[in-house]
Amino acid sequence: MNHTQNRDQSERPHPIALATLIGRELRGYKTEKPLVCYGHAGLAKRGEDYFLIKPDCQRIPGNPSTSFSVFAIFDGHNGVSAAVFTKEHLLDHVMGAIPPGIGREEWLHALPRALVAGFVKTDIEFQRKGEASGTTATLVVIDGLTVTVASVGDSRCILDSNGGTISLLTVDHRLEENEEERERVTASGGEVGRLNLCGGQEVGPLRCWPGGLCLSRSIGDMDVGEFIVPIPHVKQVKLPDSGARLIIASDGIWDALSSEIAAKCCRGLSTELAAKLVVKEALRTSGLKDDTTCLVVDIIPLDHSNLPASPRKHRNKFKSLLFGMPQNSFSKLTNKSSSVGAIEELFEEGSAVLEERLGSNIPSKTNSLPYRCAICQTDQTPNEGLSFLLPVSKNWEGPYFCSDCRRKKEAMEGKKSMRATVSR
Ligand SMILES: [Zn+2]
């Protein structure tokens, strides 16, 4: 299953927003999108791995020049319903959290926050169904040379640049391997320990109790504590002019192969063959112990000699103008900009504190009602308990949450139980 995305730029022009025009002016405009080719391979043992391939999404529906691609893997546990639900709804929830009518640069800048809102909203809605099961979620959005990855759980996305640099775009949310997450779970009221056999013998990986899950973040999982949160680690990078290859795979692959071996064993092969070879190599190394799913995506610029250098300072000033936010709101974006080989790191954040991830809401109408919930995107009017949401002081710039989403937030922080309020 190969696909190419090569846009015909001679198509009928569309009305262009002023913001878009200014954005193009500031960075130098490039019309050609890189080719995005992909391949998929997988072997099922339990049948709980799901994946999503959407190469033809559009920021502005009906306008092919605003296209972007989405790839995702959902590795379910204790049943498939969380993985199926997340596959069906996560992308819509993420896109629904991006303000409409903004240009490409602003859209890319809003994406990390929208990913957090979309993941949490998907978890809240799945839990409302009252069904068991949970899932990892690794969602990759490719727009031109900008790659944004959001993930909870232990599926992984690696990047192999043509210069030979292999980097990890996700963080493993396994209690066994993530000390920071163990501390967070314990501080929120969870207990972390191994399975205790009769006789007191401890076996297996570190798990969180109640529930016994090995992961510290997931979507779903009603039967474990709320401190197993759906808040994703998000990383956004700009690829070098020469493009790169992404390998997105479930833990069935990564338990058998290191990032280096997975990347190196399939270099030079087409994406379809590469995906098959990675799965085959994992099978050869460890046997079929778990579901294994692998997506290989090549991002190939058509003519990389034309790519302009990005004037970052100007772009950031422009963003703060557009969003009406102070320059220091973007400190995480600018301070972390650094070169990893030729890969430009634009954004990285993994905090489980929602206020740190959602910032102040992008106002739909500046300084006027209604307030929009930063998670579910519903508008709150004064008659709907807005006094609960009003800022405590004029300087308060935190995100607004509706009462349901606020309850979810407090439950995740270990402040109160969510059970009675979410199942309805
Ligand atoms: Zn809400």
Question: Would you write up a description of this structure?
Answer:
This protein is α+β, with helices and mostly antiparallel strands and 424 residues long. The protein folds into two domains: 293 residues, PPM-type phosphatase domain (Phosphatase 2c, domain 1); 36 residues, no CATH class. It has twelve helices and 18 strands. The strands form four sheets. Strands 2, 3, 4, 5, 6, 11, 12, 15 and 16 form a nine-stranded antiparallel beta sheet that branches. The chain has a five-stranded antiparallel beta sheet with strand order 1-14-13-7-8. A hairpin with a 2-residue loop joins strand 5 and strand 6. Helix 1 packs antiparallel against helix 8 and helix 2 packs antiparallel against helix 3. The longest helix has 25 residues. The protein is globular, with a radius of gyration of 22 Å. It starts with 17 loop residues before the first helix and ends with a helix. The N terminus and C terminus are likely disordered. The structure holds zinc ion. The site of zinc ion has 8 residues, from helix 11.
